[in-house]
Amino acid sequence: MSDSKAASAESAPGPPNETRLRIDPRYLSSGLITLILVFGQVYVGFLHDLSQLLTAITVALAAELALGRLLTGKWLNPASAYITGISCGILLRSLSLWPFAVASLLSIMSKYVLRFRGRHLWNPSNLGICVVLFAAPGTVAALSEQWGNDLWAMGVIWLLGSVILWRAKRFHVTLTYAVSFVALAYVRSLMTGTPFLSEVAPITGPMYQLMAFFMVTDPATSVSSRGGRIGIAFLVALAEMALRLFEIVNAPLYALFLVGPVAKFVDLKRSG
Predict the structure, then answer these.
(1) Using one digit for the tens of pLDDT, what is the confidence trace for 186-231?
(2) What does the DSSP 8-state code read for residue 232?
(3) Neighbouring residues of 12: CB distance < 8 A, sequence distance ≥ 6
(4) Which end of the chain has fewer beta carbons closer than 10 Å to its terminal beta carbon, N or C?
(5) Is the dihedral of CA 178, 184, 190, 192 positive or negative?
(6) CA 65 to CA 81: how far, in whole Å?
(7) Three-class SS string for 183-217?
(8) The pTM is what?
(9) In whole angstroms, what separates CA 190 from the centre of its chain?
């Protein structure tokens, strides 16, 4: 649910001498994003070069461990950096290795540099990916594949992802984003005359799985209230619709890049 900081599992009292299995949500998120990678590669084949994915993951892990040790004096849990690196490796397309390294490095650095009142404002991988896409559009593109006829793979991911998000108390964010996207796709179809199925089809792609399960739900960059998170999820979907109407490429990524930090800044400002 986050590539920067996963929500902590709540501990509830149990019967005496009962041993409860507690799994860090970051490891559940790491498993889910790995599942998306495996299914995407098997049924879509979106990894053109394994070295690109490995570069993104390696740079993210190295940057997290080095900066964490330097700035906090601790060796930080690398699970969040793994999610960041694999997100950059999946979502970027390029014939070169440098975009994957740069995106991962910028993503991790943003957590330590772009901060307000001790909190970072941008979802890390969203920032790194957007900066690289905007700065080098002739060299870098974003993943555009969809699951096609293998929708059962998407169903498995949504089922497992929903269970993980429910445990992390972020399922309402993903549900709001998905429902808003579908509703606004219908609005777009009325405005443009494009068939509804064509407008709603992108949500079946791996990019939207990462958006819905990791970026929009990121606990570290989400606003503090449940109602606020629901509202922001809708605003991200609304901003995406507006960008797509203006034929802006990579609209979902840019929508979160624009809406998320402003919402987090206002939330931190109001909380004092």
Answers:
(1) 999 999 999 999 999 888 887 888 899 999 999 999 999 999 999 9
(2) H
(3) none
(4) C
(5) negative
(6) 9
(7) HHHHHHHHHHCCCHHHHHHHHHCHHHHHHHHHHCC
(8) 0.88
(9) 29
